[in-house]
Amino acid sequence: MALPPDLHMHTPLCRHATGEPADYARRALQAGLTEIGFSDHSPMRRDDFDDWRMRNDQLDEYVESVRRAQQNFPQLTIRLALEVDYLPGQEDWIRDLASRHPWDYFIGSVHYVTDTWAVDSPFQLSQWDQRDAFEVWSAYFERLTLAAASGLFQILGHADLPKKFGHRPKQDCTPLYERLIRAAAKTGCAVELNTAGLRKECREIYPSREFLLLARQHRVPITFGSDAHAADEVGRDFASAVALAREAGYTSCLTYDQRMPRLITL
Length: 266
Fold this sequence. Notes:
The protein is about 30% helix and about 15% strand. The chain has seven helices and eight strands. The chain starts with 20 loop residues before the first helix and ends with a strand.
């Protein structure tokens, strides 16, 4: 089976990944991929915001490392991108990042539901004990919906990330999903099928089948990403992700060239 492009992978510059872009490219070819995209965690306006992303002065170094991989692996299409955290009020910063290099796409993601709490951080798990799960999910989806509506991103990353450690609300989250999906449909933003969830406590692809069925109903396009932080994770579990997409009714996915979408048949 021909595999779709893996558009979500990281580099050591984010300080929690291993392996150089060449290692990821080599593994992609071994896995039978013909296209990948590097989308490492973008810098924040302040370098001391957290400790799991590249610094501002490393952005050019990141671009150069991806360009070298493009030159060294001409048989593989390699896209240049960023995973950019969406925080309300930081839109001008994201536009500034967008103007610095000829990016192929931006993945918009939400990790922070407050200025200090990243819901997927294993070092902040105790925060969940102090909060109602539905309130956390509501805050998360409110921010991701703003990200989708902003028009700043081509792809939404790991759309139901709060389930990572198994924290799921008892309430029905369909209204949260629907608001996000309607915003994405208006701006043409794709939703990523991110297989990293299968490697986490939730043991489920991001997003869930229920979410994906709603996205298909509203004709929201999809992309695929392994969220690889090591070379052996490139393309991991893509057969399962393609099967899930087909089950939801998808027959194609997207990739991007200079922010322009290109349709790929599954």
